Amino acid sequence: MKKLDKESKASTASSQRDVPHDQELQARRYYLSRLAMACGTLSLSNATIAQETDDSPLDFGFIKKPPGELYSLGRHRLHSLCMGESDVTVLFEPGLGGSALEWLPIAESISSNVRACIYDRAGYAWSDPGSNPRHVVLLAREAKQLLIAMKTNSNLILVGHSFGGLIMRQLASIMPGSVIGLILVDASHEDQFTRLAGESNVAMLPTSNNFVVSAPELPSGLRDDIKRKIRALSRMRKTYTALHAEIESFRDSCDYIKANRKSFHFPVKIISRGSDPYAGDNAAGNKDKIWHELQTEFLSLSETATQIIADDSGHHVHVDRPELIEDAIDKILTMHISAK
After folding, report:
1. What 3 state SS string does the chain have?
2. CATH 3.30.300.130: does it fit domain 13-55+73-277+284-339?
3. 142-159 pLDDT per residue, tens
């Protein structure tokens, strides 16, 4: 694993070279489809093409006006938007290359019962770029610093989607006395690359730091106004750099979580997609079966852990079936109130 307290230089070679369009597009298709498979999602190649050929004008004026507050962590600032008044705070963590804005509809919906907070990891949206490597230890540490800066470091319900699940597990492990519940939404598993590798004859992650990435697919069920903002935000150079750095440290992050696996005394809710993204793909092997086996293994994280399969939902359960996330939050909140 890379030394965490030493800043590494993020590779920008791929973005600086004069790469022919067809070669660049091929590289984007390859790496995003491999990474999507590693996360148990559909290939992103078609969605990437669709976004790049969308010529409708975007309004970038909103970028100058952060909807929330910027909190200093010393060397850089993170942006967070909170709504609602309560002694219980729900913090949402998006997946790799995802946007905090994906969680805005749920945050708005639950804000009458809890304090709901979305935030941008360093480099995304309104947050400043951060230091490298963008390893899960650093990402969780920054989330903790943000919560302390917000004076919100108790009675926490942590919600992590995909790669964000690794971050929330690490955050829960360094703030055990502050967390009252953890919700993993079709979350990444520390063994996914090892277990899924046997079902593919190509690398699921880039084998070097010289690779090309582009914005991930936007969930089709998102409101149009949110989609347009995410599309605009994804065009910033710092966003590309942040995504690139998180991918570069993805395997190391998984290895760290595996070596330091923690179980928790509070409730853990596992919400897993129900749709098979590999249906009809004869080359996919047992990927979907293995993914669900990995999801079931999360039940060992807590004696009170429970799992729900989100029927008719893909990887973005929070968009396809938001009521399941809201219900899980409500159940944890009810248990917390009953225990007082």
Report:
1. CCCCCCCCCCCCHHHHCCCCHHHHHHHHHHHHHHHHHHCCCCCCHHHHHHHHCCCCCCCCHHHHCCCCEEEECCCCEEEEEEECCCCCEEEEECCCCCCHHHHHHHHHHHCCCCEEEEEECCCCCCCCCCCCCCCHHHHHHHHHHHHHHCCCCCCEEEEEECHHHHHHHHHHHHCCCCEEEEEEECCCCCCHHHHHHCCCCCCCCCCCCCCCCCCCCCCCCCCHHHHHHHHHHCCCHHHHHHHHHHHHCHHHHHHHHHHCCCCECCCEEEEEECCCCCCCCHHHCCHHHHHHHHHHHHHHHECCCEEEEECCCCCCHHHHCHHHHHHHHHHHHHHHHHHC
2. no
3. 999 999 999 998 999 999
pLDDT digits (tens, 9 = 90+) for 23-46: 333 333 434 444 554 554 433 323
Task: Quote the pTM value.
Answer: 0.84
Every domain of the chain and the residues it spans: 13-55+73-277+284-339
